[in-house]
Structures
1.
Amino acid sequence: MSNEIDTEHAEIFGAHQLILKDEELFKDIKKDLKKKRINVEQIVQEVFGKWEKKIKGQEISAIQERSNDVIDVGRRLLRALVGSTNKNSVLDRSKDSVIFAHRLLPSDTASFNIKNVKAIVTVEGTQNSHSAILAKALDIPFVSKINVPIDSLPRKTRVIVDGDKGLIIVNPTQAELESYPLLIQKRLSNRTKVLKRINNIPLKTNGELIKVSANVSSLSDIKMAMDCGADGIGLYRTEPLYMDSQNFPAEEKLYLQLVVALNCVGDQEVNLRLLDIGGDKTLPFLDIVEIKDAALGLTGIRLLLKYPSLLEMQLRVFLRLSAKFNVKVSVPMVTLPKDMIDVRRYFSQEKEKLGQEKIPFNKALFLGAMIETPAALMFIDELLEHSDFLSIGTNDLVQYIMAAGREKKEVSEYYKAGNHLIVNALKDIIQKAKEAGKECSICGELAGNLKFTKLFLDIGLRNFSVQSTLVPYVKYKIIRLTRKPGCSFETLQKAEILCSNSTV
Ligand code: PEP
Ligand code: MG
């Protein structure tokens, strides 16, 4: 703070530290906590309130003024206790900023004040990284693999980030500065045009309905999905509800946040995914050694089964939501059929508890496996027995089949090759799910790649789940493929290039 403002003002924070260290205050909190045995947030609020009054009652005005500091510290402490992030990061400060970073974790992206971020540029990472997925879902250009020495770019440098072409222009010319707003405008009007074209046209092939739903991970994502005409939510990544927090959210907080989100979806179906932590998705407050660098370790359902209270709480929240909303639940990173059997046991247990407490829920709530590991592919028959539906996560499936990390740019060629390789394996799963009368969707990034749409339709896929902003394009492509040939549309061709560009 001394660098940012001046030393004199920075000393205010020294005084705040002293308040936090005050033994009397701490004693009061401990005493009340022991006596009242209620939540600590309540106690902090009461004790700080008492101290504020005490200081205000002093005769010397200089001391009276200190009451503001007590209020300030009390509020910040409360914010920390209830898990609201203390947004004082450099990322949240200036409007229209471009974030430059070597690598971004999803928790970083989740904590941005997204309104101020115009674009993101990273040295590491690919379009399959979770940060890229989170950013793109909000229509924020995300460019990676750049060769600009980002450390040497002075602050306030003007840049254009072209997410379509995957490049950045440092210190653009006047002509470039003038042309880009027009391009952005055109892009938006293209989407509107496509949206108009797809409006109310049923997606069908051989009499079978085709659904294009959206992958989301936040409220703004959901709103975007609905604006883009998504047929429900095919994958709700719940991790950001945990990442943008300073502790595990309490049951009620999680429930209420999801109620707000689900209220935007109407009666369309939403696939809520259980917490999928591990790999690049860590929780800032979780200090479990096993999940650091857990790509082949304690990820997804494995972590939840090791710490069942986490699983039980999520299942309980999802069950409660099922009383009001059209939801289903998917299980991430399944490998053994036993994973599904174990989750089902906790599922029944939570149903029983809710039943005893007379809390309503949908008794027929669907529970399905995500197919995103080679083992799950091999156990597909057994997994189908224990699943009400399947959801194929190609992002992870490809990286594990190809032994090529989804975030590792050095092996992106292998990753791309893997995308083509798995189509046949997917045919088998889709066919088996169909025979078992169970729904099967693809929700990895590949589902939104227009170069694969025809292949997917040919192998029997009827449920696509893609990034919100791609919904109109995928729908339009399906309409073109399933209707009479000859209706070409320039915008779609451009979109095809856009969706297959590895740096967008
Ligand atoms: C996937 O792996 O394809 C998937 C949809 O899950 P995530 O990208 O969140 O790992
Ligand atoms: Mg995955």
Note: Confidence is low (pLDDT under 50) at residues 87-91, 499-504.
2.
Amino acid sequence: MSNIGSYEQRIKNFDWSLSEKELDYKAGDVLNIGWHCTDRICRQGKADKLALIWEGRGGKEKRYTFNDIRLATNTIGAFLRGQGIKPNERVCLFLDKVPELYLGFLGILKIGAVVQPLFSAFGDESLHVRLENAETAAVITQKKHVSKVRKIRDKLPHLRHIVVVDADPAAPLQERETAFSLEKAAPVEHLDIHPTSAETPSVLHYTSGTTGMPKGVQHVHYSLISQYLTARWVLDLRDDDIYWCTADPGWVTGTSYGIIGAWATGTTQCVLDLGFMTEAWYKFIEKHRVTVWYSAPTAIRSLMKTGEEVVKKYDLSSLRHLVSVGEPLNAEAVIWSEKVYGLPFHDSYWQTETGSIMISNYPGMKIKPGSMGRPFPGITAAVLDPNSFAPLDEPGKVGLIGLRPGWPSMMRTYWKNEETYRQKFQNGWYLTGDRARLDKDGYFWFVGRDDDVINTGGHLVSPFEVESALLEHPAVAESAVVSKPDDINMEVVKAFVALKPGHPPGADSELEIMNFIRKKLSPLAMPQEIEFVESLPKTRSGKIMRRLLHAREWGEEIGDTSSLEND
Ligand code: PRX
């Protein structure tokens, strides 16, 4: 029997106080995610239970019990406090998936500071805009990434500390840099946990929009109430599970469920600090006897591509529950996984802004392959008319996905951008920016995004950010960035570029510009293809018509072009 039991029963008279009770929380109490994920679990008699099995490159392994992670998070918290980090200041984690990323996350929360996790493959420009916007006080990083921070530190007056977790004693540290070694630091048995309350800011995740800067999504400690219960009811985490969330904590799945959901439920989780590789992944499941696996459609499609034969080489019999997030999960992927693993992937839908799973296929509930499932108990979701923002009552009609605000893990604002935050609400609904249709049984079917943001392998890329970076290249006169279809990543970035006179188009220029973006932004934002054009299609007012280029890439009807200046 799954944790959720009967979905129909659960949605009746649902109240979030049920989660509060399980977490021994009452309104007005101190609520600290760092404490809840470590000290509280130890107090439940699980101090010696394994919390983290970590595997790095070359099979290097480290294991931590709940008591170990309690001590390590105390130690990191005390170190940062000693450096003068104050409650509410932003501390950025700019790390590969090393233990310090997971433990640093909770250590920062324990002292009441705000965690800003950033993907370690970000280039200096991506890093700069996010650190500048958040007025970040400290960055915790590794020696392999410190050069990117050095490149931009002079433009960041708020950045007081650059902490290097694996500093090389032979290489001198530079201005504002401090070495911190978790292994060498004296463990701190008692740390005064900062008395954070439900509404105290906790995590600041940056996400991409169509226009403007990436937005800082501000979460609070009360998000735990949603993350805990969804981890129990959707991921179905239980005491004897070995859980593997493949997401990087640079993204919200890797924090809400790769840290908080896993440890708030006292679950043993494993982490593989390695990108996607079919056989390495199967070997990892076999070796650690993974039972619950939370992954993404791009990975599943890659596994499908490598085929069934390789599956037979590994003992994957420990698996009991599979869940997916981040992009549309094709019906074929669900059917395939049922066939080869004997278990279907359960789709789950949510966003950085929602903080926890909103719509999902629950264990025990009938799966309709290709559908995202039904709203989590306590979540009111609807398909809205795009003009009136009223729910469409006829099943099958496509509209906007709206969510009734008020669940615990909803973002509280966009950092220093209250106006954009307010624009996300219409007629009493939070607008997700996605389109879907609802069937007569109340299942949601994803149709697409309602904006130009590119979802490549589950990661959102802003065309605006890539276009701005392209313009910094000396040869680029103008550019337009759209998605193009891709078998594995669903979408990849494609750039149309008009070059300045004297810069010839060709394979060399293409490679050179691709690399420029990879280094500046990230490998994900790098265009997979650059098409050189004489000029770009524009509206009469001079706005680049991305819509037209997008339609061309996807073989869609181009629609009304009457406002085009050229074609
Ligand atoms: O467009 C939807 C897509 O990913 C967006 C949210 O991305 P992000 O904030 O980075 O968070 C990703 C992980 C929670 C959504 O607006 N998306 C997410 N899950 C699904 C999805 N699209 C289709 N099906 C899903 N299950």
Note: The first strand starts at residue 50 and ends at 55.
